[in-house]
Amino acid sequence: MASTDTGHAGSGDWLVGNPTGRQLASALWIGSVGLLILGLQPVLLGALYTEGHVSGDELALVATAEMIAIAIGSAVVAMLLSAHNMRWKSAVLLLLLALANVWTAYAASANTLIAARALAGLAEGGLVAVATELIARSRRAERIGGFFVTMQTLAQCALALLLALYVIPAAGSAGGFIVLAVVCVASLAVAFTVPGDYADLPKEENLANVLTVPSLTALLSVFCYFMFFGAVWAFLEPLGAQYGIDGRTVGLIVSASLAVQVLGAMTATVFEARIDYRLAIAVIGVVALVSSLILASGPGLTTFWIAALVMGFILLFIVPYQIRLAITADETRTAVLLVPAAQLFGLAIGPIAASLLIDGKDFRPVPEFAAASAVASVALLGLFILVTRRRRAVA
């Protein structure tokens, strides 16, 4: 490999290595393909529910299995495997994900769907690590992270609109998963333009830095925040149906919410250096609480729209600040590599935990659970601040 891929000395904006702009963009796209499902779950899982392939409880299990698998896949690749041969790893993971999506399209039972989405999640997690491994090597990880979430959400928005308006009405949920498989195959061309090898970070020597109170409280705060969003996002269609909002309209709301997520990510990228991360996370937690309580109150169509759009904006606006939180907790940046896993575990546990509170066809406990998760996220931030201040005082 060229020295731009493998050099250990940092150059400019990089702690180690010096990837080109094209290589960075390629890695971010590969990671974005791994996270496409995050924006498409309400549309695709909602279609599976409407078509009678899964019940409400089974829908939660499908969503949870995939999110947990993504978290495991991203953590394993980032923490246990070397960051070498990234082009071939990207290609193999894309092919595996394409096959899992085709399997999902033709799955005949809920158990088969769960198995197919778990396999898809493992591949998706590996693809996410292709991007996050490179982001962790940047001196401006927060800004690159903002670009990453902007790219992935733009892709999610475009696909959600395509699926909700054209593909699913014509070909059902199966057609939606086939489209995802096609995207994976098309992305093989990009896989061979990522850096072949990433310069090594000394993460093996600093793994113990994750097992500290600051790192654990930071990651748990991230986990609880995404648990808030995961609960509402997975049940948005049945929740809307309870309030008299049809599935097509919810699909449009999802697409619009994804567009607003792009705005949130872009706004955070511009302002991340001007706003203290602690203030940003606390304020966003309060907004998450209020939005959840509104959804639990039986809102009309307009209020439902507004609450969903607000949630979309804050979801990715917070990401650069969560990256800064993790860097503050562990300056070796090992904890940063686990931020995607914390986010994805939150998205996974949110639906299954909320589903335990659902009473028959009443989905109101879902946003109520989300509100409690938002409060927990802010409380853990407060604990993090107290711990870090005490450590500085002792030092």
UniProtKB/TrEMBL annotation:
It is a multi-pass membrane protein. It is found in: Cell membrane. Pfam families: MFS_1. Keywords: Cell membrane, Membrane, Transmembrane, Transmembrane helix. InterPro entries: MFS, MFS_dom, MFS_Efflux_Transporters, MFS_trans_sf. Residues 210-395 form the Major facilitator superfamily (MFS) profile domain. The chain crosses the membrane at residues 27-49, 61-83, 90-108, 114-135, 147-168, 174-195, 207-236, 248-267, 279-298, 304-323, 335-357, 369-387. This is MFS transporter.
